[in-house]
Design brief:
- There is one protein chain.
- The chain is an alpha+beta fold.
- It has two domains: about 80 residues, Ubiquitin-like (UB roll) (Roll); about 80 residues, [2Fe-2S]-binding domain (DNA polymerase, domain 1, Orthogonal Bundle), CATH 1.10.150.
- It contains five helices and five strands.
- It has a five-stranded mixed beta sheet, covered by helices on one side.
- α2 packs across α5.
- It starts with 19 loop residues before the first strand and ends with a helix.
Length: about 190
């Protein structure tokens, strides 16, 4: 007996078989209308369906940060996000940070500071650092932010702040000192 397959309904509704939904994502400034299986993660959608291979599958458990992308400007581990739950969101991958041939300041700083070795974690590190700079500018405190810090002003970006805020992104090569330098340089 042939399985009962129905095309997805428009407008984000699940298909009649209940396993797929249509959704709209704004990825790196391009609007994409997609039909996605409910089990598909954002990471797998980006890499396997859209060819955006910057975000890497490291641990596939949200522990290493290699898959970090920006969702509505906030950093997130794409391996943990169901793609269908991102309907209507703005997704930025490392491929979407540069403006034409001009690299994003963090991409440029990582190159100039030699803040990478094998490069596997670098796209996630850079996307996370973009999120860090936005959090700092918005006054979001971290564990090491002094309790006397004014939440209405940007947080002072010390090396301890950078290390704390980037702690969810692992580098097996140990390029951490250069990563801190690159983030500090880009922040200036």
């Amino acid at each position: 007996m042939e399985p009962n397959h129905h095309p997805p309904e428009p407008g984000g509704a699940p298909s009649a078989d209940g396993h797929q939904s249509s959704l709209v994502l704004h990825i790196n400034g391009v609007t994409q209308t997609l039909t996605v299986d409910h089990r598909t993660t954002l990471l797998d959608l980006l890499r396997e369906r859209l060819g955006l291979t910057g975000a890497k599958k490291g641990c596939d458990h949200g522990q290493c940060g290699a898959c970090t992308v920006l969702v509505d400007g906030r950093r997130a581990n794409s391996c943990l996000l169901p793609a269908v739950a991102q309907d209507g969101r703005q997704i930025t991958t490392v491929e979407g940070l540069a403006e034409g041939e001009r690299l994003h300041p963090l991409q440029q700083a990582f190159l100039e500071r030699d803040a990478l070795q094998c490069g596997y974690c670098t796209p996630g590190q850079i996307c996370s650092a973009v999120g860090v700079l936005a959090e700092v500018a918005a006054g979001f405190p971290s564990h090491v932010t002094p309790p006397t810090a004014d939440p209405a002003t940007p947080v002072e970006l010390t090396d301890d702040e950078i290390r704390e805020r980037m702690s969810g992104n692992l580098c097996r090569c140990g390029a951490y000192p250069r990563i801190v330098e690159a983030v500090r340089e880009a922040a200036q």
